[in-house]
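Handout, section B. The chain below has 463 residues.
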Amino acid sequence: MFIYKMFNRSYRDYVHDNETMRTLNIIILSVAVGMFLFTIQGGVAFVGFASALGAGEFAFGLISALPVLAGLLQLFVSYIAVKTEKYKTMFLVGGVIQRVAWIVIAFIPYLFPVGESSLWLLITLVTLAAMAGSFVGIPHTTLMGSTIPIEVRGRYIAARQRVMMAVGLFVGLGVAFVLDNIEGYLGYTIVFAVGGVAGLIDILMYAGVRFSIVSSKSVGFSFAKVMKACFTSPITRNYLLFWMVWSFVINLSAPFINKYAIDKLEFSYTSMIIFGQIIAQSLSLIVVSRWGRLIDRYGSAPVLLVAVTSFSIGSFAWLFAVPGNLWPLIVANTIGGITWCAHDACMANMQLSHTPSEGRPAALSIYAVATSIAAASALIIGGAALEVLEPVMDRLELTFAGTPFDNYKLVITVGGILRFAVIAIFIPRVWNEKGLTLREAYKKMFESTKLSWQLRVLQMKRK
């Protein structure tokens, strides 16, 4: 009870039984342990490990895309879940397999000679982990949707993110220290093995949790009807359409930034962690609760529009990047740290508010399939484009603001332009769960901010 109250005592006003409070405790505390694995899965450690095993741009795109395609399995997972209602069993078994796969990944350099065989083993194990993870995501999100009080959902999700970020700061520093000071493959082995074990503990913390999920049998649930509703209901259809297209434009360039910084710009792991991850997570830690309150007050759509627009502007800082110059990394991650946490909070909140409680597993599986196809396509296209464009851009020797305009900067530019197009076209169509249009929401935000400043000025004058 004490640890949960430490985050926000006001939640108890909406929770009236100890079992629910205990589940909310575990949802937050488990993610703190799981951050040891989450930090390395898509971070600089994995990028460096893949490069050390010989992965080029296209191979890295493929390594990143195949696990994403494993998300297609979630359609099958959701069907099995609603038919058997074995949410907890699926969650625990899938989670254990996923975590064990990452422990095995840690020892790849010692199992096979470094080269094509070890690279394919990495692809196989990462894909296996992603497939097993398909059995984790839907039950976990469904559990959150049935447990978190709707009145404080935004704040609770923000509190959970704060824990992730706070732990991520320390984990990131530890990862950087190990990789920069332990030569060879031993550093990667230590990092991935510790992450895999921590992830295993994270999953096992749910062994005593009661998955209080609405029975599909008690509400006359039809898997086919929910799937049909996802494409016929304007609320769900527009929500799915935005996230699918957004997933494509984001993954066209963003996943390759770390590889660019490490391989081409020759930034050290310590620089990447301190001036990238640490800055971003520290700022997120400060502002995420404010984003959560804005979501609870004005809804997800207006907050999302501000967040993704700001983040997209910040990504253009990489156009000025040159080896040894860290300021583009700092600028991009400063803006990203302030806004990306709002993006994630909106995404999590919309997964719950834009899907029906009785058909949520099916709706979430469609979301996973749509975004997985989009993301995997972007990763393969982005990786292939980077590899094909490299000799072309080297011959052209173009410059921008006095810096070389290489293949990475071209892909970043195209990706940034596409982001703004998606923001302008799709977000205005996304339903806002608070019943406010974007214009109404921003008007209320402006009036509230203006009133707050007036009160602050008045208080200062009185002093």
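Note. The chain has 19 helices and two strands. Compare this with the example in section A.
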